[in-house]
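re: ur question from yesterday

yeah so i grabbed the chain u mentioned. its 420 aa long if i counted rite. heres the sequnce exactly as i have it in my notes:
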Amino acid sequence: MPKPRLILDWTLYRLALLVAAPLIPLRLLWRGRRERGYWRSWNERLGGGPAPAAQALWVHAVSVGEMRAAEPLVAALREAHPDWPVLLTCMTPTGRATAEALYGDFAQIAYLPYDYAWPVRRFLRRARPRVGILMETELWPNLVYAASAAGVPLMLANGRLSERSAKGYAKLPALTRACLQRLAIVAAQTEADAARLLRLGASAARVTGNLKFDIAPPPALLERGAAWRDAWHRRPVLLAASTREGEEAALLHAFVTADANALLVLVPRHPQRFDEVAGLIEAAGLSYQRRSEFGRSPLAAATRVVLGDSLGELFAYYAACDVAFVGGSLVPLGGQNLIEAASVGRPILVGPHTFNFDEATRLAIAAGAALRVADAAEWMQESLRLLRDGALRERMGEAGRAFAAQHRGAAARVTGLVPV
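ran it thru and got these structure tokens back, copy pasting raw so excuse formatting
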């Protein structure tokens, strides 16, 4: 692409960063009102903080989903290179909490600096990583250019790019192309992801599959879910997992309208919304208990809803339910990962908007592991049908396990491509 276009793209990007600079501390202060982690470790967001161990395996995962997806890859790389230090970076407090839970006993964990030239150069100068692995699609131009200048090879792993995201990157076509061409390896989840990355300018893209298929359900969480079921007196359980704003009220209305003889377990995607969702449950006139209250009081017979106000327990919630709805899909937000529910062997329902997980959702539906519903009313209708039909639930659950097992192996394929 002509050099003038690259100059123009860089100018627009730098102007955007300049305009955003005074807003960053305000944003951190504002978000910290509901999630106090945003008020901590500001020095890391400027490239400071404790100096990481040199020559580390550096993995950047923006938040919870990406951090968890990295788990099988990090395990495979540690097995292949047991002497390497490990550095995990993220952008959100929930991502950091997930990293602490998964990797805290062996890795250094920090926030990645914002994409301004001097903080990212400072970060790379102090960290001096052996290699950098960017999970999914984290293309930050100053970071990519600084890593290239510092001789740090960067790899895009588990690359995922929806058509909507591709259109966003295409607004700065020369800059996006220049960033992609500076990556040592581009490993995409699917053929469609690879095609979009190539269209944006990647020199080559390998299709390695989705690392999330390699995440095995932790036995301790499966046991915890089974214990909850026993404590809930084996009541029929409907799970609405990873729900987003605009979904809970509709789900609760459908649940109340149907007067279902079941326990609804509602697990919002973002912890800062736990209290907001509690208010929605109260407004619906439903008695509820919080996950955080478990242990202090048993589940009351009158309780209609459990509010899942905890992090890192999604496998336990799946193990405790009869039917799982995966949120972010009733509203046009692109859906959430349904692979975990499939691997636990639960029948899955999703809404109409799953563009962020298009192929995994399509394959799960084709395998008979998942069903798509148009809205909350149909979710309730299908949920009740599945509760009545134990044989269908069993068939869908087995199809889910087979679907998850069939697509494993991405961690080994990506490990073999890491530029070391």
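noticed a couple things. The CA atoms of residues 129 and 361 lie 36 Å apart. also The chain has a mean pLDDT of 94.
anyway ttyl
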